C-alpha cells in the first residue's frame, strides 16, 4: 500500500523507491446522478513544464489527441468513466523525460464543461495514483475530495525534479475558465 496524501503534501518518489525508473499515473472519477442532456466526458492530461512553469512547445501538452512526448505515453480516452479503477492512464519513463522538463502537471478536465453546464461539483471519487508498472505496487495516492463545486478542470498533482530525484506534490487546484484558458496558463494556445 502506497502513501496516501492530503492536499499540499509532498513526498519523495524515486528516493524512497531506489531503482524506480518507470511509473504509471492512473486517474479516475465517478459522475454523480445527473439529469442533463449531455454525457460527461472527463479527460486526463499532462503538461510538461520547464523551470518557468510553462510548456516549451505544444508537444509538451499530452492528452488523448497528442498521446506521446519524450518519455511519456497517454494510453487513450475513456469517454464514459464507467467501471472500477483507473479511467485513464499516463505512462512515464522518468529516465527518458526531456532534461528541460522540471515539472509534470496532471490535470483532469471535463470536456466542453462550459458548453454542457458541467462541473466538478457533479463528479465524485476523483483521484490520482502513481504506481510501479513492473510490480503493480501503488506508491502514491491522492483522493481529491468534493471541494470543487464550479470548476471544469482540476490540477490534481505534480511530479517534479529536486536534486536529481523525482518528488510528487498533491495540488488539488480547481480551474474555472475552460480548456483554452487552462492551456494558456501553461503557455499553450488551444484555440
Please provide a written account of the structure.
The chain has 191 residues and is mainly β. It has one domain (3-185): sav2460 like domains (Lipoxygenase-1), CATH 2.60.60. It is built from one helix and 13 strands; from the N terminus they run βββββββββββββα. Strands 1-11-10-3-8-7-6 form a seven-stranded mixed β-sheet, with no helix packed on it. Strands 2-13-12-9-4-5 form a six-stranded antiparallel β-sheet, covered by helices on one side. It is globular and about 50 Å long. The protein starts with a strand and ends in a 6-residue tail after the last helix.
* Count of DSSP strands: 13
Question: In which order are the strands of the major sheet placed?
Answer: 1-11-10-3-8-7-6
Beta-strand percentage range: 35-45%
Rg, nearest Å: 16 Å
Q: What is the helix/strand order?
A: EEEEEEEEEEEEEH
